[in-house]
Structure formats: structure tokens, C-alpha cells
Specification:
Chain B: InterPro entries: Cyt_c/ubiquinol_Oxase_su3 (IPR024791), Cyt_c_oxidase-like_su3 (IPR000298), Cyt_c_oxidase_su3-like_sf (IPR035973), Cyt_c_oxidase_su3_a-hlx (IPR013833). The structure holds 3 protein chains of 3 kinds. By secondary structure, chain A is an all-alpha fold. Chain A is built from 16 helices and no strands. In chain B, α1 runs parallel beside α6 and α3 runs antiparallel to α6. The chains are: A mainly alpha, B mainly alpha, C mainly alpha.
Chain lengths: 560, 208, 124
């Protein structure tokens, strides 16, 4: 950051009573807060809860799949388990996770604002989210849904026995929360940037959240309407997609995927932002090709709206549309590749520090590359016809959404944990968990590529014995993966009490969020910041990073 | 202007006004996509079942539809005047026009209610016993009920917002310079625009 | 945002004057579209109806919602979503208009009556 900022005296910890965590006490001060940092923590609590619930569905499935026969779950229960897993993980964990936890907390800090543009709307959006989540839990308790998270007609409207209406209503309501948050973020980025914070001085995380918000605003209402159509058809029998009365179930798929493909970018774009921050900090390098990273983000957000038909290659969609969507899907791979190359180039001649967030980030790049490249397989019509609705597809999207987005979430949480709580997490445990997540994930999902290619269809609870070795591998990997998810929750909680106090900027990172105390005071900055330089000022522009004369990296476990 | 109108993250009232308008425009972009989804469905089915759709559209009541269009356009006029009056600080004009807007909005819903009653009596609700033989006619009426219903829901929300503003302006608990009047106006005009497109699609099709 | 640079009209009469003209134009267009709906124009009937609707919407957007004022951000926001509507329509129709006959809706008609009960339970 600028000289002026460096010279400004930043206290490491806020004065007693000034920290946002202690600015008010009591339950009401949390449940009625309009402070974006506290709302981020409210989201963290809610989203963690839904993560456990959705994870329970995954655990049930992986246990069932240990053996070729049905042991634990009946066919119907299995259908309900994977539907519940999908609905919760997509709409109540992945979509809101990074934007609503890290985005809510960091966006105003990163652009030097006091709060989001509409603080009360921000709180309202949390309550809408909770309402939707309550409805989702009602769906589970009432008996669940067996349509799959995609609610395809005419299964969902005419034939399914589960509580489709409640599930659709839950997702519908969650959409309002998404839109409210997105409007808030967009207005904040446009109108609340600190003096000097020009568009091309924004950290890439802010760009990513901004682009995500635009996608949310434009895509989510389409989902809302299409769920309303499903709801009306099922509840009141008005024919919209009913083939017996001239309706077109494929039209439902068009409208559904017009939302749900961009939704993939809603899940992964914020991760791009997080990873850019992590890699720049732990390689001590300016992000290579900053402006191209920005254009790539915007390009993905735009073209992501044009590729939805690649989910429908075997649905009866016309061959012309298949070809168009296939071509456009290849086009959207270009900016993703630009990002991967730029991250790699950022590492070049960097002074890489293998702290936990960096391990998560490097794991992300690897897993995202595999997930992205297999996406090209699926964008190619002949290959897709072969592997449609097999575990190949399951593996592909888990590589993007779990390997990618969840790695970024955990990496980001570790990176900003000192800022959020004022405490340092234990570095040794964190590195262990990060490595374990990478291997656990790979053991779980790489076998799925193999068995998918061999023909194992998704959404079946029994299978032919030939696949058992792959399923056992995947289920064992899932145990490791589960441990890697639980361990950070343990040491994060531990650090709240016993963790070392963090300084204002423990990683010597750039970015306005580090130019205030840890944890930040309620009004974010003691004096409103002024920005005079581009982001990622880790070394002088137009020259490489400084020679390696930096003191050896101190793992926090041994910090003085 | 009372200093309390300035809320937390903002350093100036001008910026805060700007944000309210901008935020609502972003939300309207979202609303456009919401209706676009259903209208895409309408467009697809109208292309596939053109004759059935036109025949079905002739069954709607064009008198009620036209009357409601005129009512809504007039309510937009009074809403625009109310927002302008609030900015100019003309209290009586603002209150009168807000009240007129509410009256027109309620009139719209009442006419709509009569229309719905007539439609139900004529068995135009899709399902068993539907009045028209062509199966796709039911799809037309599915969209008719859905689109007008969702529009009426938007009208109801707009009426609630306008009534709240009228009450607050009446009690002087909200200053006339508050951006809320303009923002409510934007929303109201948007709902009007939705109807401007629904009118030819649902009422005028197949009349020639 | 709208109207910041503008000198606010001070009197009620001045406010009414400009807006009544817009309202009159809107009602005239309403009359026109109603009359034209009964003229047999073939497939151009839809074009005319939607064209008039677009004209009315444009009047409302520009004059009631103040987009006439040169605020690039608001204009961009207001019209950006139309681009995405175009995406939705174009690519959906790219499929619907070119689909092979067996997958067109309606080709299974009328296998059974519309009153066939669906089997799913309708619990919320």
C-alpha cells in the first residue's frame, strides 16, 4: 500500500470495546446488527450448519455405495438422500458460502467503506436465507424429495411423491436472499469505493464478487420464475410443461439451466478472487496480468450465460442447438485457462511460502485445472453422449465445486481468520489439513472419472460388482475428506480461545483490509483510507520481486 | 433536510440518494429477467401452437383489459407527479397524488377481480372441464393466470409501499426529500411497463 | 440519482404540464394498439402490437423514470438485462425452431386425455 498508509499508525488490536466483536453484547446485538462483519459471522454459522446437513446426505450415500447391494438405504431413500444433498449443498452452502461469508466481511474493508450500501437489507437477506433454510429442513423432516436437485418435469410436476412444493418454495425464497445480497454488493462497489480506489485498483476478490453479483441478479430470477411455474403446475394443475396438453418438458430444462449453468460460475468466480489474493500474497508477487484477470472474470460472467445447453445434449434438443452450445462451451474455457496460466505465471520467480492458505490455493489450481479440462470433454458432444449421467459428470462438477470452491473457502477462511477473529490459527495443523483435503478429495473423486468412463451411471444405489473397487476407493477417500473438513473447524474453534493474538497485518499482505486493526473496529477504519496505488504492491512495478533476502518464513507455531 | 436522513455507510446525502436509485434499477434488471423467463415460455408455445393460442386469447375480456391498461397508465401519471412533487417539496400535491395512485391501483385490482370472476364462470381455469377443446388453449390460460397473477402480486406490493409512504408523509415522519418517493415511483412504473407488454400478448392477440 | 442536476420544477402546474402530455401520448398509443388489433395484418399484427408496447414502455422509462437524463450508469443498468433476455430467447429458439420432429412437443398427442390423473402426491 501507499507510503501514507504504511506510515499511518495502525494499532494491531482495537482499543477495548471498539472491536466489532465486543462493540455490543447480548444476543439482540447480534440478531439485530447491521454491521456487515457480524452479518458475515451470522452467515458463517448458518452455512456451516447447512454444510453439515448436506454432508450427512453425502455420508449416507458413500456408506451405501461401499457394497454393490442395497444395505443402508432403499432406492427411494437413496433418491431422497442425493436430492437433499444436492439442494442443500448448491443453494444453502456453495452459492452463499464465499460471497456471503468472505464477501460480506471483506468487500467493504477491501474498498475502504464503512459498511455495505444497504446495511438493513443485508440483515434482511440473512433472515430470508434462514427462512428458506427452515423450509428446507421442513422438507427433510417431512420426508424429503426424490426428484434430484434439478426438479425435471414431468417427474417433479406429475409423478414424484415427495415434498416438491416445499423444496421448490425453499429454493425460491433463498433466491430473494441471493438477489438482495447481490444488489447490495453491486451498489457498494459502484458507490462506496474509497477516494483513489479506481476500478483498476480494485483487488481481484472485489472484481470476482462484483461479477458474481451481476450473474446472481440476472440469473436467479429466472430460477425463481421457473420454480414458480413448476409450483403452479404441481399445486394447481395448470399445464405449462405437461406433454399431454402440448407442453414441452425440454423448455423447462432450457429455463432451468439458463439459471443453473451461470450458478456454477456464481459458485466458482468468488473462488477465483480468493485464490488470486492468496497466490499473490504467498508468492510475494504482483498478480501477473492483472487487467487480463479482470477481463477474464467479466468474460466468464458474460459467456457463462450462453452455454447452458451443454447440459441437454441428450435431452432431445436439436442438433443445431447442440452444436452452438458445444462451441460456446469451448469459448468459455478460454478465460478460465487465462486465469490458470496467470496464476502459474504469478508463481514464477515468486518467493513461495507453503503456508496453509497457499497449499489450499495450489490445490485449487490443480483440482480446478482437472475439473475444467474434463469440462471440455463434456462440452464435446460425442464424448458427452458417452458419459452423460455417469459418474464422470459427478466427478467433473465436484472437482469444480468441491475441489475448487470449498478449497478456496477453507483457504480464504484461514487467510482472513486473523482479520475476522484477531487470532492466529495453528499453522502446523492447518498445513496438515490442507494437504489432507487435497489427497482426500482426489481419492474420493478421481475414481469416479474412471468408473464413469467405464459406464457407472449416477443416481443408482446398487451397481454391478465390477465397480466395487472404485466405489470403495471413493468411500475411503471420503472418510479422509470428511476429516479434512472437520479438522479446521476444530482448530479454528480452538484458536478462538488459545490462538495467538494476531497483528494488524500478520501476513504482510497488501490490501486495505489489512490496514486496520485485527479484528477491525465497528466502523472499519479509524481514519477513512485513501488509495494511491494499484493493488498487490508486493514489489516495485516493472521489476521482479526483490532477491531472496527476506528473513526465513516463520511458521506461526514458532512465532515470537 | 434533517441530518438524521443520512444513514451509516454514507458520507453525503447526495451519494445516498444515488445509491437508492441505482440499487432499485439493479433490482429492476432482476425483475426483467423474472418476467422474461415466463414470457420466453409464452413465446415458445405461441410459436408452436399459434392457432390455438390466438383462439384462446380471443376468450379474454378485452374491455376489462383495456380499461385496466388505461387505469394503470393514469396511475403512473399520478405516481410520477407525486415523486416530482415530493422532490419539489410540494406537500399537498404529493399527498393528493399518492392517494390518487393508491385509488387507481385499487381500481385496477377490483376490475381484475371482476374479470377473474367472469373467467371462472366461463370455465377458463385450466384443468378438467375447461371451456376450450384444444389442449394448447389450456397452456395459454396457464400463462394468462400466472402472468396476471404475478403482476397483481407486484401491484399489491407496490400498493403497500405507496400506502406506507403516504402514511409517513402524512404523519411527517418521512421528509419529502427522502429518496423513497422516487424509488417507489420507479418500481410502480416498472409494474406498469410489465402490464404494457402483457396487454397485447394476452388481450389483443387473435382479435383481427 | 435522477434529477440531481436538474432544476426542480417549482410549481404544481409546471409538474403537471409535462407529464400530462406524456400521459396523453400513452393513451393515444393505447387507442392505436387497440384499433390496430382488429385490423387483419397477418403476422405483422404481433409486430405492430409489440412495437407500440415498446414505444409506450420507452415513454415511461425515459420520461417517468427519468432515463432521458444522461446518466450512463443508470442507462447501462436499465438496458443491460435486455441483452440477457436476448440471449435467453435466441438460444432457446435456436433449439425450438430446429428440433427434429419426434422430439417436438405435441407429437405424442393425443395419446390420452388431459384428465389422466398424475400419480404424485400433492402434499406441500
Amino acid at each position: 500500500m501507499s507510503e501514507a498508509l504504511v506510515q499511518r499508525d495502525i494499532p494491531d488490536a482495537p482499543a477495548p470495546g471498539e472491536s466489532y466483536l465486543t462493540a455490543g453484547t447480548g444476543l439482540a446485538s447480534w440478531l439485530l446488527t447491521t454491521d456487515h462483519k457480524r452479518i458475515a459471522l451470522l452467515y458463517m454459522a448458518a452455512i456451516t450448519f447447512f454444510f453439515f446437513l448436506g454432508g450427512a446426505g453425502a455420508v449416507a450415500m458413500r456408506i451405501e455405495l461401499f457394497t454393490p447391494q442395497a444395505d443402508l438405504l432403499s432406492d427411494d431413500a437413496y433418491n431422497r438422500a442425493f436430492t437433499f444433498h444436492g439442494v442443500l449443498m448448491v443453494w444453502f452452502f456453495l452459492l452463499p458460502s464465499i460471497p456471503n461469508i468472505l464477501g460480506n466481511f471483506l468487500l467493504p474493508l477491501m474498498i475502504g467503506a464503512q459498511d455495505l450500501a444497504f446495511p438493513r437489507l443485508n440483515l434482511l437477506s440473512w433472515y430470508i436465507f434462514i427462512t428458506a433454510g427452515g423450509l428446507a429442513i421442513y422438507t427433510l423432516l417431512a420426508g424429503g424429495v426424490d426428484t434430484g436437485w434439478t426438479f425435471y418435469t414431468p417427474l417433479s410436476t406429475a409423478f414424484a411423491n415427495g415434498h416438491v412444493l416445499a423444496a421448490a418454495a425453499a429454493v425460491f425464497i433463498a433466491g430473494f436472499s441471493t438477489i438482495a445480497t447481490a444488489v447490495n454488493f453491486i451498489a457498494t462497489v459502484h458507490l462506496l469505493r474509497a477516494p483513489g480506489m479506481t476500478w483498476f485498483r480494485l483487488p481481484l476478490f472485489v472484481w470476482a464478487i462484483y461479477a458474481t453479483s451481476i450473474v446472481m441478479v440476472l440469473a436467479t430470477p429466472v430460477l425463481a420464475m421457473v420454480l414458480l411455474l413448476i409450483f403452479a403446475e404441481r399445486a394447481f394443475g395448470i399445464p405449462i410443461f405437461d406433454p399431454l396438453r402440448g407442453g414441452d418438458p425440454i423448455l423447462f430444462q432450457h429455463l432451468f439451466w439458463f439459471y443453473s449453468h451461470p450458478a456454477v460460475y456464481i459458485m466458482v468466480l468468488p473462488s477465483f478472487g480468493v485464490i488470486s489474493e492468496l497466490i499473490a500474497c504467498y508468492a510475494r508477487r504482483r498478480v501477473f496480468g492483472y487487467s487480463f484477470m479482470v477481463y477474464a472474470i467479466l468474460w466468464i460472467a458474460l459467456v457463462g450465460f450462453l452455454v447452458w445447453g451443454h447440459h441437454m445434449f441428450v435431452s432431445g434438443q436439436s442438433m443445431l442447438a447442440n452444436l452452438a452450445f458445444s462451441f460456446l462451451s469451448f469459448v468459455v474455457a478460454v478465460p478460465s485457462a487465462i486465469k490458470v496460466f496467470n496464476w502459474t505465471a504469478t508463481l514464477y520467480r515468486g518467493q513461495i511460502i507453503f503456508d496453509a492458505p497457499m497449499i489450499y490455493a495450489l490445490g485449487f489450481v490443480g483440482l480446478f485445472t482437472i475439473g475444467g479440462l474434463t469440462g471440455l470433454f463434456l462440452a464435446s458432444i460425442p464424448v458427452d453422449v458417452h458419459v452423460t449421467d455417469t459418474y464422470f459428470v459427478v466427478a467433473h462438477f465436484h472437482y469444480i465445486m468441491v475441489g475448487g470452491a470449498v478449497s478456496a473457502l477453507y483457504g480464504g477462511l484461514a487467510f482472513w481468520w486473523p482479520k475476522i477473529t484477531g487470532r492466529l490459527y495453528p499453522e502446523g495443523w492447518a498445513r496438515f489439513a490442507a494437504v489432507m483435503m487435497f489427497f482426500g478429495f482426489s481419492f474420493t473423486f478421481f475414481p469416479m472419472f474412471v468408473m464413469g468412463f467405464l459406464g457407472m451411471p449416477r443416481r443408482y444405489h446398487v451397481y454391478v460388482p465390477e465397480f466395487q473397487v472404485w466405489h470403495v476407493l471413493a468411500s475411503s477417500g471420503a472418510v479422509v475428506l470428511a476429516a479434512a473438513y472437520l479438522l479446521p473447524m476444530g482448530y479454528f474453534a480452538w484458536s478462538l480461545v488459545w490462538g495467538k493474538r494476531a497483528t494488524a497485518n500478520p501476513w504482510e499482505a497488501t490490501g486495505l483490509e489489512w490496514q486496520t486493526a485485527s479484528p477491525p473496529p465497528a466502523e472499519n477504519f479509524a481514519t477513512p483510507p485513501v488509495v494511491t496505488q494499484a493493488p498487490y504492491d508486493y514489489h516495485p512495478e516493472h521489476s521482479g520481486p526483490p532477491a531472496i533476502e527476506r528473513a526465513a518464513q516463520r511458521p506461526q507455531g514458532h512465532q515470537p | 433536510m434533517p441530518a438524521t436522513a443520512l444513514r451509516k455507510p454514507w458520507r453525503s446525502l447526495r451519494r445516498q440518494r444515488e445509491a437508492a436509485g441505482f440499487g432499485l434499477w439493479v433490482f429492476l434488471g432482476s425483475e426483467v429477467m423474472f418476467f422474461a423467463c415466463a414470457l420466453t415460455g409464452y413465446a415458445v408455445y405461441r410459436t408452436l401452437w399459434n392457432a390455438d393460442f390466438l383462439a384462446a386469447a380471443r376468450e379474454t375480456n378485452v374491455v376489462y383489459g383495456t380499461l385496466n391498461t388505461a387505469i394503470l397508465l393514469t396511475s403512473s401519471l399520478t405516481m410520477a407527479v407525486a415523486a416530482e412533487g415530493a422532490r419539489a417539496g410540494l406537500r399537498r400535491l404529493t399527498l393528493a397524488c399518492l392517494a390518487a395512485t393508491i385509488a387507481f391501483g385499487l381500481a385496477f385490482l377490483v376490475v381484475k377481480g371482476f374479470e377473474y370472476r367472469e373467467d371462472i364462470e366461463r370455465h377458463l381455469l385450466p384443468g378438467p372441464g375447461f371451456a376450450l377443446p384444444a389442449p394448447a388453449a389450456q397452456i395459454f390460460f396457464a400463462f394468462y393466470w400466472l402472468l396476471t397473477g404475478v403482476h397483481a402480486l407486484h401491484m399489491t406490493i407496490g400498493l403497500g409501499v405507496t400506502a406506507t409512504l403516504l402514511w409517513q408523509a402524512w404523519r411527517r415522519s418521512r421528509p419529502l426529500r427522502s429518496p423513497a418517493f422516487e424509488v417507489a415511483g420507479l418500481y410502480w412504473h416498472f409494474v406498469d411497463i410489465v402490464w404494457i407488454f402483457l396487454y397485447p400478448l394476452l388481450y389483443l392477440a387473435g382479435r383481427a | 440519482m435522477s434529477g440531481l442536476g436538474e432544476a426542480a420544477p417549482t410549481g404544481a402546474a409546471a409538474i403537471w404540464r409535462g407529464r400530462l402530455a406524456v400521459w396523453a401520448a400513452l393513451l393515444a398509443l393505447l387507442g392505436a394498439t387497440l384499433a390496430l388489433a382488429y385490423v387483419p395484418l397477418g403476422r405483422f399484427g404481433l409486430v405492430v402490437a409489440l412495437g407500440i408496447a415498446a414505444a409506450k414502455a420507452l415513454l415511461v422509462v425515459l420520461l417517468f423514470m427519468h432515463l432521458r437524463k444522461p446518466d450512463p450508469l443508470l442507462r447501462l443498468t436499465a438496458f443491460a438485462s435486455l441483452v440477457f433476455v436476448a440471449f435467453l430467447l435466441t438460444l432457446t429458439f435456436a433449439d425450438v425452431l430446429t428440433r427434429a420432429a419426434p422430439t417436438q412437443p405435441g407429437t405424442v398427442l393425443p395419446r390420452s386425455g388431459p384428465d389422466l390423473p398424475a400419480t404424485g402426491q400433492r402434499a406441500f
